[in-house]
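Quick start: read one record
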Amino acid sequence: MQTSSDRHEYPAHWEADVVLRDGGTARVRPITVDDAERLVSFYEQVSDESKYYRFFAPYPRLSAKDVHRFTHHDFVDRVGLAATIGGEFIATVRYDRIGAGGTPASAPADEAEVAFLVQDAHQGRGVASALLEHIAAVARERGIRRFAAEVLPANNKMIKVFMDAGYTQKRSFEDGVVRLEFDLEPTDRSLAVQYAREHRAEARSVQRLLQPGSVAVVGTGRTAGGVGRSILDNVRDAGYTGRLYAVNRAFPEDMKELDGVPACRSVRDIDGPVDLAVVTVPAEHVPDVVTECGEHGVQGLVVISAGYADSGPEGRERQRALVRHARTYGMRIIGPNAFGIINTSPDVRLNASLAPEMPRPGRIGLFAQSGAIGIALLSRLHRRGGGVTGVTGVSTFVSSGNRADVSGNDVLQYWYDDPQTDVALMYLESIGNPRKFTRLARRTAAVKPLVVVQGARHGGVAPQGHAVRATRLPHATVSALLRQAGVIRVDTITDLVDAGLLLARQPLPTGPRVAILGNSESLGLLTYDACLSEGLRPHPPLDLTTAASADDFHAALSRALADDTCDAVVVTAIPTVGEGSAGDAALAEALRSAAGAVPAKPVLVVHVELGGLAEALSAAASTAPQAAPIPAEKPAPAAPVPPSPPSPAGSSPAASAPDAPAAPAQRPPDAPAQSAPAAPVPPSPVAPAQPAPATPAQSPPFTSTQRTPGVRAPEGAHLIPAYPAAERAVRALGQAVAYAQWRRDAADPGKVPEYEDIDEKGAAELIAGHLARGQGLTLGTQETCDLLGRYGVHVHRALPAPTPDDAAAAARTIGYPVALKATAPHLRHRADLGGVRLDLADEEQLRRAYAELAELFGKPAELRPVVQGMAPRGVDTVVRAVIDPAAGAVLSFGLAGAATQLLGDVAHRLIPVTDRDATSLIRSIRTAPLLFGWRGSAPVDAAALEELLLRVSRLVDDHPEVVAVTLEPVVVAPRGLSVLGASVRLAPPPARDDLGPRTLPAY
């Protein structure tokens, strides 16, 4: 490490893991005196051309003086960073602070010369770009504001690294050298470049895991059963298109195959590259496996093994060591304690999971942090007919287990580009980086629906095994922010699947107007009521009567879809006695035909145990029922019970699934076939109610291509989702309507307005002066008024009244009528307790009110009374802003009063707020009608309220040291508003990792 003569201690916080352009990882860390041998070895592997570009002359080897210079740094004026893989250097970067003449200097000089060297074997991986981000962040921390670099004109790669970084630059050419100078302050373009690089790298890292060319299952048993052998069988039986290997150190030395799969005792013994290793050995043996994989060049790991953070503090440390160990070799990890991964693409067909059968190919991506929930999701999609045509099945599935490395954020990066995924469904038990997740979710939702259900919402803590940063925001606030980002938030797994099937099968509605038609008046009325509950605008239901034929449904649906006042149609249907599956198929074909003629409007069906109708609606569109049915394919088990993954405790990642749906019951082989559907069964509160799997005699008429997994529906096939309950269908439709509206609004997000009267510089000076007194403080009344006044927020004047005489003097200063208010913490903003007296017209009334308050609540010292001028009457509201260390800055709005607090009727937006955000914010609360003339009252000045919200947003966005603002109450009158109370808290702002260099979460 550094010697005592160095000016600063080793900056461990500069160490970071980064994802490179090709999806691999590297470790970035400061270079120290202990790195001399590594530096020499690294330099020997650099080509002569690269050395020439670095030193502008032939430079075959480093001298002892060079080695000393490049390894001895003071971490202030001279800094060197290295990118390492497997502990060895693959690239270096350094800066030296320089003065005006280009000579070595110290602070306050704010310019430095920077230079890079990247091993030829690692050029093109984005190493230099990542190092530039990190060395720039280090330089800013040390007071350096500008970099200078001299590059030979032929060194196009390095010139491109600098030019593409997005910083404000100046370029010149002199004496045969290109000189580049650029400011290090992040710009909108530099952040955009950084985010784009982050996206490409993280998406590629997941792609390498989900699309491997070769897979090794480590820990495969020789006999059937056990986790390793089960996964090997699943990979093989799914028809994996790449090379597959079975690995177990217990195999005999002469063993070459295991059921036709090449067998090896170690990953090192495999002849050829291995892209993915699925690790199923006990936790205590995993480190040896990671070393073998790293030395063999494996690109990624899926760790099924349990016994990590899921097993307590000791396991948590074991998990940290696992991640550090894998990243040393540039590998990413899914898991540990994972259920596995699936990719149904015909080019891959990978089932590296504990699911015994491959899901049908389709367009829905699934991510689950729980193996048990992953099983339930796969099961319900299968049982709902999701994917009979390959359109609503699964594209990819990831069960992240303890989410030690690869997280939902990484998978979102992959799905954003994945042409095989149209809808993303996610089950999350924790959000490790809410700020980043919100950013990625907003971008993803702009092009494809993202539906999220969050578990552990009310537990207050993350599930065991999940390492997440703390947030002070309640779950309701986080949910509101996710909805603002376009996320479709649902509460249950059932809702997740319901919404996913609709969004994968139907177009987005253009509005909330819903037509309802069907052969049951009662079911139509239930649907009508459900629409009203979801905020939709239903037309009166059209009852076709129970005598309606398939042609009647076709005609009614065609008319509804042709109606310009209709944005979506819900068809309700009950069984027709005696028609059986032939009637179901005819009705399904009639509905598909009508819907296909107007493909721009969504159609949903509410059915009551119609036997084969739900499946027929999912089928690839055939023009007519076939004459002869074919046997139904074997249904996949709805809730497979995998073998327990190896762990010290023998626990299973799916062990906690008491409510996982059971496999559908099947008719015994010798049971007689039945032509009529079974009696309806009430839907389960956990799993969707579905008819029993069809026997050969019951099967709806399909062609063989319709029953083949992976076969896409013909062009123009219109797939209609069916639901067993009106409430579920309408809930899914309501979510689709809200999401479609968000998509339209997101196309024009609005702007953050400029206000000429804002004094940003003056506010910054005030804040700096206050913070000089302490690290965190709540401003006094006058200080608060002064700071808010710099942003055009004026607080109604209030004067302290410690005695009746002081109260009378204050009233004379302000002018009657006045209000007398107790501001003690237990009485503040509690008008319901009687601590406020209004409209005091003269001194006599004021003194009488003062005496009443003292008699009711105690001495004036306990009351802290103030006198304030009367404001115009209006609606009392509350405006708050807070900076959360995990989610960022949040602006909140609601009406004042106990009822709002009791009901949690508060709306939230991320800062900075645009004009459109402010408009929607005040209309998002349930009590918003009180602002807009409810029951004949005068509407308030909404424009003034929106302007106040925008000014508070600007204050917090411009000055992150303002960590909390509360304006309460804000009385909004028909003309103007009055801020009657305010408080501001200042503190050093929490670190923003989204503005720093790209890094993986630290372990």
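Confidence is low (pLDDT under 50) at residues 1-6, 386-391, 620-642, 647-716.
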